[in-house]
Amino acid sequence: MPAYGTLVEVAAEVNAEVMAADPAAAQELGSIERVTAERHGAIRVGTAEELRQVGQVFAALGMHPVGFYDLREAAQPVPVVSTAFRPVDADELAANPFRVFTSVLATDDRRFFDADLQRRLEERLARRELFGPLLLRLAARAEEAGGLDAEDADAFVRLAVAAFALSPEPVDAAWYAELERVSGVAADIGGVGSTHVNHLTPRVLDIDALYARMTARGITMIDAIQGPPGGGAPVLLRQTSFRALAEPRRMRGTDGAVSEGALRVRFGEVEARGCALTPAGRARYDAWLAAGGSPAASGARWRELFPDDAAAQAAAGLTSVRWVPVTDRARDGRAPEADLGRLLADGWVRAEPVVYEDFLPASAAGIFASNLDAACEEGRAGADDAPAATRDAAWLAGALGRDVVEPADLYGAVSARSAAEVADALGLPPLRQPEAAPVPVPA
């Protein structure tokens, strides 16, 4: 895809410079080997059945649906709900740090699609086949048996790669344009006969430096870095991208004639990951965001909510960390106190940040919207008071036929398990996690 090679090259340059400056600090949130290999992709499907099928394909690779994201409710609404398929075990993620952010259309949401457009869209989606029966059979066998023999594994990979490739088939220009008036994302999903990877995201250790360097190379970036402010002790996820570039596509006109055209669909996204937040920390972040917080206008208020120090964040109960006993601490006659915050302050434990492995719906919607043509950004076809289709984590699990993992449960389990290990190592009673004091965020 255009300019993707430049993005990967610049990310590698920035990562090498950050590593050279301070290798220990650069690798606090993962080894440089992991960061270099790490990618997340994104795909979009049209129906609950297509979502169930793609869930089966990812299950063959040990990737589970984690999180529910409703991009319809973002400031820049997109008519999809999403999840991310990824490993859930920490060791597996360290070895295979790959995720696929997967969105499905809400075709019955009247805020976007009227009844006639819904009917015609669903008829078209019902006629297509994204994942063939052999691919699905191999995927089910791989999940059940924990793998495939060499011949079947090769066939699985070949079929899966083909299923996610950009199709050379001509695009129905009039139909695509009709959907594009609602949403460019809807057109990308329902205006073609296949799905495809629409971005593939490397990880960078300094996203501000990358943004500046890409701009200096003449690559048009989206207007802003999405997510929390940078600097200090990073939390959650910061993302940006260069704008989708026009790629040649064959287009079919109403007379059936095929001509050369172009679509802007695939874009180059890049991310910088921080520490996961506790539920209290996430509530604080969400309140800050709802009150108009942005990376460009953070200032002292952000630092008041999130101290500019990783240990202070952990002690305040804001971040999910792995508690590690300091076994070589000099004993000074004082017994350790049965309080994690005090143990941290007194040097009995250290707090290792747990990488935030997931996504932010406002950021995802912001990047999607920033890569649409200006004419499509007005995309909501229905009135704001039109009924919204029911979509929640329960709907998602039912569509997939699989449990959807709550990200906070994974992070909380790491902290709880490590706290129990600290208690055992230091001979203390069970230790409670630090609790964040509520901080009012002005509207």
TrEMBL record:
It holds the Pfam family HGLS. Its EC number is 1.13.11.93. One of its GO terms (molecular function) is dioxygenase activity. SMART domains: DUF1338 (SM01150). Its cofactor is Fe(2+). It is an enzyme of class 1 (oxidoreductase). Gene3D superfamilies: Uncharacterised protein PF07063, DUF1338. Keywords: Dioxygenase, Iron, Oxidoreductase. InterPro entries: HGLS. It comes from the Bacteria. Belongs to the 2-oxoadipate dioxygenase/decarboxylase family. This is 2-oxoadipate dioxygenase/decarboxylase. It comes from Pseudokineococcus lusitanus.
